[in-house]
Amino acid sequence: MQKALREKFNKNFTEEKYIAYMKEVEAVSPGALDFRNAETPIFIDKEFTHKMLNACEDIIDVMVAPNFKELTERSIPADVRVPGNEKHAQCMVFDFGICENGKGELEPQLIEMQGFPTLYAFQAFHSEITAKYADLPLNYSSYLNGYNKESYIQLLKDIFVGNHPLEEVILLEIFPEKQKTRIDFYATKQLLGIEPVCLTKLKADGKQLYYIKENGEKQLVKRIYNRLIFDDLQQQEDLTDIIDLTKEYDVEWVPHPNWFYRISKFTLPFIDNPYVPETFFLNEITQPVNLSEFVLKPLFSFAGMGVVIDVEQADIDKITDPENWILQRKVTYASIIDTPDEPAKAEIRLFYFWKDEWERPIAVHNLARLSKGKMIGTRYNKDKTWVGGTTAYFEQ
To answer: E strands within the chain?
Structure first.
């Protein structure tokens, strides 16, 4: 996007530099990197950054409105509703595609949002390593609103540990050692000291939660940094003797699991902004629409499964629960990142955090993804290079 920086990076790129760079990335937690890391970062100018941030402010206006919980009550499936004090979502992410509008101009378009964490700890390492590898100019940063690595790590501690003794805080996931994002769990332990704990190890004694440590000691759990996605949990087979998370326990959730549903595809129909694609609940469409202009998405699915890009009426007709589906206007990703063969498309995930004393969440950091396939994601980019996870750097 920044032509001079792109030309400089591409001119100076060598496979040897990339191999050395990847050794540093993989050294964050040897053997844990389980997704492709792209050869290049993304350089974003001030104007494009402001468009994304302004769109997020309009979204946040909806989220902080007094009726937001009422609007999103139906978003939470009854069989996974977790009791307890939801407060607000302490963290959330907004995914923007770098797109091309009808005039051929570049603009951000919101693809998805989640009231759920992402690779927060890993990105503290990754963005620093990538900046050095890319010979990043001093007026560019992966951080926003004045944050840097040190203040970012402190913010993560404030959000996820809070005032609790560290030993009473866990990162909860199902089989964390098998997850593709496990490098972030280990990075979290390095940065914050939070222990990753499998749901199968968590036990209940009345309203108290605990797990047995490797030394055989019983460890009380009072705060959960939640990385467990119920959609993923429901894909697991032969799970027995796990606690029922829909019961009330004496524990704080960060973020509370219900926010995964409240801030999600479900929220999109309530947003009115030029950088948020027009979205409808399928059961609320009363006028004919040109299906070729829309993408069909299930509200509840795991890892993007069930999305229909080339929608036909037959796809609509076979849906028996239209209230659980949305039609989202298609956007045109711009093939904007020059690479040695074909140009790549890009998506930027903005990290927002919300401390209890803040009036609203603020943007702090990011990750990015490059693709040459029909969609962003590993399955669409097999055997391709200059694709995968990376970092965006914003002009300051």
So the answer is: 42-44, 91-100, 106-114, 140-141, 169-173, 195-198, 203-205, 208-212, 218-221, 223-226, 252-254, 279-281, 294-298, 325-329, 345-353, 362-371, 388-390, 392-395
